[in-house]
Specification:
It is found in: Cytoplasm. By secondary structure, the protein is α/β, with parallel strands linked by helices. The protein contains nine helices and eleven strands. The radius of gyration is 17 Å and the shape is globular.
Length: about 240
């Protein structure tokens, strides 16, 4: 039986992906399938940390626009991620997975405060750790939070599960000539302004030399395929 290629991963799941075709709210069939694969990864001996977006409920400045003060709009987005974290944690527990939720904004009655050493200890004991509330600071995306947590917990790789199956030279929904990359460097992502992650998240992953693999969550089994070494989606890494 093949061995996992990574010992510890940081899985970033977009909020929109959890909403399924509805694009808003929670699709528990989708969440259930994702959690089945997370359980499979954990049982294979992989230590799993998860950062979840909140776009299925609220997208900070995008939804707040000029109608709200930016900091408050971003705080609302952080609370949206906490809702998604609790939904994932509950589903994992239903499937017999030991899980802990840690949040960057303290809400002790429903989650642990984020403590790096405690998160690592949980993962070493085989628990899945779900990180909520982004970085706890406005003006930073949950993609940046994913890279930050990955760096803090010494993750081998960041798995970016989104609604697109890889990195393209242009928006494939708008440009039929867009080319999908199997591999691309951080520098090229930044230079071409490609929509992998925001520039802050990309720069942070580059500075910390953490490879990022972007793939579609439409088939949750892609998560397992990636950790087992299959070439899925696009890998963003240093130039060799």
């Amino acid at each position: 039986m093949p061995e996992p290629q990574y010992k510890r991963i940081l899985l970033k799941i977009s909020g929109e992906a959890l909403a399924g075709d509805a694009s808003r709210g929670l699709d528990f069939d989708v969440i259930g399938r994702v959690c089945d694969v997370i359980k499979k990864c954990s049982e294979a001996g992989v230590q799993v940390g998860i950062v979840v977006g909140g776009g299925n409920f609220w997208r900070g400045v995008k939804d707040g626009g000029d109608r709200m003060e930016r900091t408050r709009a971003d705080h609302m987005g952080m609370l949206a991620t906490a809702i998604n974290c609790l939904a994932i944690a509950d589903m994992l527990e239903q499937k017999g997975v030991d899980v802990r939720v840690q949040t960057a904004i303290e809400m002790r009655s429903i989650a642990e405060p984020y403590i790096r050493s405690k998160a690592i200890r949980h993962m070493e004991k085989g628990r899945v750790v779900v990180f909520g509330c982004g970085t706890g600071n406005p003006f930073f995306s949950t993609d940046t939070a994913a890279v930050l947590r990955a760096a803090e917990i010494d993750a081998d790789v960041i798995l970016l599960a989104k609604n697109i199956d890889g990195v393209y030279s242009a928006d494939p929904n708008k440009d039929p000539t867009a080319v999908k990359y199997d591999s691309i460097t951080y520098d090229d992502v930044l230079a071409q302004h490609l929509q992998v992650m925001d520039s802050t998240a990309t720069s942070l992953s580059m500075d910390n030399k953490i490879p990022v693999i972007l793939f579609a969550l439409k088939d949750p089994e892609n998560i397992y395929r990636v950790i087992m070494g299959e070439k899925i989606g696009t890998i963003v890494k240093e130039e060799k």
